[in-house]
Amino acid sequence: MDAKNMKPESLAAQALGWVDEATRAIAPPIHTATTYLRDEDNQYRSGRVYSRDQNPSYDQAEALITALEAGHQSLLFASGMAAATAVFLALAPGDHVVAPKVMYWSLRNWLKNFATDWGLVVEFIEMDSAAALQAAIQPGKTKLVWIETPANPLWTITDIAATCRIAHAAGALVAVDSTVGTPVLSQPLTLGADIVMHAATKYLNGHSDVIAGSLTVRADSPTWQRIRAIRAQLGGVLGPFEAWLLTRGMRTLFPRVRTACASAQRIAEYFDTHPHVAEVLYPGLPSFAGHSVAAAQMQGGFGGMLSIRVKGTNERSGEAAAIATAAKVQLWKRATSLGGVESLIEHRASVEGPGTPAPSDLLRLSVGIEDAGDLIADLEAALKLAHA
Ligand SMILES: *Cc1c(COP(=O)(O)O)cnc(C)c1O
């Protein structure tokens, strides 16, 4: 069977079925060499000179991400932040970019501070509104529209295809942080996006033991070549062992994400009517603002991320009750990050600090692959203790 006809599940499970030609090993070796032998006639026919950005340990992971995203080419980076910032640094000072008000907080901070100091004109808008984008975009001047969907920590949904139509009509590129969407659930490039970014730290690796990022492009372009040069010259590259772990992690991407989605849906529905919960934010709930757009552009689930807003009591504010709930869980791990096999719970406003769009009573939940009933029982017990 030709790989072109295989389902992404099959490509991921076997990491494209690559075999090490020298040994016939079905798991790849880890290439630690930093430099490569030059031919006697002074050529480099291997195509590799120095491994800052030429390590063979990247090849399989990059090829797999490219296949799963239906893209042209991918690049691994040392972190999601290294990947995301490379996209902005490929622009020029003075360029106008549009970004969402609700987005991954650390990138928002970088855009507000470093990127703005460097000369980018960054405008933050309600990205779930086509009218807001239409009003913000400046034909010829806006070079990039950055979106994240579902977006941290409210899981705001942005219509990728509609955003691309507006941005492209004005001559701007569209880049999508698809960390939470994962290639299992959505493929932004097939909806018109130019670049898709992953914090591979999260679902792609899936085991909370690698910091990594990736970019995948729909078609080659001068911007993509600048991004390649930025990786090579700024040197935010992944280590070979981390690339190897990432490849291994991606082999189980589909069953992990599907389990997390199914459990997240159950957890969202259960707590949506719970007496100690004011609101559940999850794109899989029909009452959620972005539900119909999410249903149209995500397949097979709405992701493993949700947030709950905890009700206060006579003695405790919603914020205090949320923090007390997180303090009482046993199975959920009280930690930041997301997308691992273990479920995490976090009082998000404490992490993000001033300027966060997270309400003070919000707990962010990253659903792992434990038994959903156990996760529900543990959270319910913690809510009960916090409201005792
Ligand atoms: C974690 C995360 C990032 C940053 O990735 P790092 O690997 O931590 O640098 C970017 N976007 C989203 C949505 C994330 O969750």
Descriptive account of the structure:
- It is built from 14 helices and twelve strands.
- It is globular, with a radius of gyration of 21 Å.
- It starts with 7 loop residues before the first helix and ends with a helix.
- A seven-stranded mixed β-sheet has the order 1-7-6-5-4-2-3, sandwiched between helices. A five-stranded mixed β-sheet has the order 8-9-12-11-10.
- The chain has two domains: 248 residues, 3-Layer(aba) Sandwich (Aspartate Aminotransferase, domain 2), CATH 3.40.640.10; 134 residues, Alpha-Beta Complex (Aspartate Aminotransferase, domain 1), CATH 3.90.1150.10.
- With 388 residues, the protein is α/β, with parallel strands linked by helices.
- The structure holds pyridoxal-5'-phosphate (PLP).
- The site of pyridoxal-5'-phosphate has 17 residues, from helix 3.
CATH arch. level architecture of the largest domain: 3-Layer(aba) Sandwich
- Write the H/E string, N to C: HHEHEHEHEHEHEEHHHEHEHEEHEH
CATH hierarchy, class of the largest domain = Alpha Beta
Low-confidence regions: none
Bound molecules: pyridoxal-5'-phosphate
CATH topology of the largest domain: Aspartate Aminotransferase, domain 2
The rough form would be described as globular
User: Which quaternary structure do these chains form?
Assistant: single chain
**Classification by helices and strands:** alpha/beta
Number of strands: 12
Radius of gyration: 21 Å
- DSSP summary: helix tally: 14
Which strand order does the major sheet show? Answer: 1-7-6-5-4-2-3
Specify the helix fraction band.
25-40%
